[in-house]
Design brief:
mainly alpha, 88% helix, 0% strand, globular, MFS_Efflux_Transporters, transmembrane transporter activity, Major facilitator superfamily (MFS) profile domain-containing protein, membrane
């Protein structure tokens, strides 16, 4: 959504912009596997708290990034946080909700993720247009 604005500000090539997206996409599945294993060892709630903090912190730091390298690092952090969220969150839902409510709980969770993303795109574009991407 804000790729063109960031590209211009940092004088990035299309390859570098792709690298920002790839940093996220590469880290996401790796974190999902590693953090799922850690969630089984350390506890799901602990890992969920850790990855939400990582995801949120990396997102906030993106706004103060001063270089392409910093942008890459923050995108890696967002990818790790988001990737590490899914497995323990879904497992936690299955632990909390009885069998006859599990599918509904997972469905509501999935809808929340998608609606939250959709709202985020609209809000980020609106805010960036009014105040700048940072």
């Amino acid at each position: 959504m804000l790729a063109e604005t960031i590209k211009v500000e940092f004088q990035l090539t299309d390859v570098q912009v792709g690298g920002l997206n790839s940093a996220f996409e590469f880290t996401y599945p790796l974190a999902a596997i590693v953090l799922a294993i850690l969630a089984d060892r350390w506890g799901r709630q602990r890992v969920i708290s850790l990855v939400v903090a990582l995801w949120s912190g990396a997102t906030a730091l993106t706004g103060v990034a001063g270089s392409y390298l910093t942008l890459i690092v923050t995108r890696l952090g967002v990818g790790a946080g988001q990737g590490g969220y899914g497995p323990p969150a879904l497992t936690k839902l299955s632990e909390v909700f009885p069998g006859n409510y599990r599918a509904r709980a997972v469905g509501i969770h999935a809808v929340g993720l998608i609606l939250g993303s959709a709202a985020g795109y609209i809000l980020s574009g609106t805010i960036a247009q009014a105040l700048g991407w940072r």
